[in-house]
Amino acid sequence: MLEDDRRRWPGAFGVKASGAVLVRPDGIVAWRGRARAAAAEATLTEALAQLLARPAA
Prior knowledge:
By secondary structure, the chain is α+β, with helices and mostly antiparallel strands.
């Protein structure tokens, strides 16, 4: 398990503490949400649909 005891993660990825980052298995950042979205689940679903080139359900 990874832990960020020094709380450097948000700054390293250019997001706020409430943000999110999708990282591909090869380490490339595929998507970044700088702060929590009002409709977080819908925002993530849309991002994944775009990344996978599939229409959102």
